[in-house]
UniProtKB/TrEMBL annotation:
GO cellular component, one term: plasma membrane
Keyword rRNA-binding attributed: no
Coiled-coil blocks: none
Name of protein: ABC-2 type transport system ATP-binding protein
InterPro entries in the cross-refs: AAA+_ATPase, ABC_transporter-like_ATP-bd, ABC_transporter-like_CS, ABC_transporter_ATP-binding, DrrA, DrrA1/2-like_C, P-loop_NTPase
GO-annotated molecular function: ATP binding; ATP hydrolysis activity
Keywords from the named record: Antibiotic resistance, ATP-binding, Cell membrane, Membrane, Nucleotide-binding, Translocase, Transport
Region (Disordered): 316-337
Subcellular location, principal: membrane
Record localization: Cell membrane
Gene3D superfamilies tied to this protein: P-loop containing nucleotide triphosphate hydrolases
Membrane topology of this protein: Peripheral membrane protein
Source species taxonomy: Bacteria, Bacillati, Actinomycetota, Actinomycetes, Pseudonocardiales
SMART domains: AAA
Organism of provenance: Actinokineospora auranticolor
Amino acid sequence: MPPPASSIAVRAEALVKTFGSTRALDGVDLEIPAGTVLGLLGPNGAGKTTTVRILTTLLRPDSGRAFVAGHDVLADPDAVRRSIGLSGQYAAVDEHLTANENLYMVGRLYGMSTSDARARAKELVNRFRLQDAADRPARTYSGGMRRRLDLAGALVAEPAVVVLDEPTTGLDPRGRLDTWEVIGELVADGATVLLTTQYLEEADQLANTILVIDHGKVIANGSADQLKAQVGGERLDIVVAEAAELPATARVLAEVGADEPVVEEHQRRVHVKVETGPKSLVEALRRLDQESVNVLDVALHRPTLDDVFLSLTGHAAEEEQPAEPEGKSKGRKAKSR
């Protein structure tokens, strides 16, 4: 069979991987058009990291096929490694080297000349705001600085496909926004990005297409708006002044809502899915006023990716799930040597 068309930068077909009695992947298919971002979402243990490791040649599937930048990951792994940059869940940097030395080393491993490797290292040090620590050993860096250095290392060779496995884990809000900006610049320059993340806001912000997997199977695929449309309706949130008012509030929202209301006692909040939007809000407030409920805050929300995730998997994205069997990998970069 021929490799995928040039317009498709990454393609996986019916990937299966088992670890003992655990079926980590159970027939995963995906496609990433060139120059776009695919957000890979799922609970911990769903198969995200297994998928990433197969696509980056760090793990062989039991069955199925995958192509990256036109190269078969099994038949031509060296060509795949020359075409990708990988930033894993854990910062993979040499703690005894400085930022400049780490990035220079990566450049040389990719076959860059001495001058080009040094220039690229300096460029990326500045881009990731590491210039003040550029000549200090990485062992003196904070966790966030190590994550930025690791991401910079994945971009040294300006790869056609960039694989980012939870790239903003451990970063402060400024670092996360900086990383989002870099990802946007990569795509604007023509790169293709595979992004796994636990931050649903991140996928909503960056991904052209979102793939949700659970128990090794793809359970949803589409743009953020398409996935939100599957949930349907809007969510009405009511915050009351006293916890004693929650039962009456829940009763009213059960009457005006399209589903069972959810009560969050510690926040004195009740929310429910509604089908008629503003009309439901007005009716709820009228009835709550009749019940003499003191409403502190009210809001009407479109479905979010959190709602999608909860609807598809049965729990919130931040809830801990069993880790994938190979989840102890330290996120090595795939390099050409």
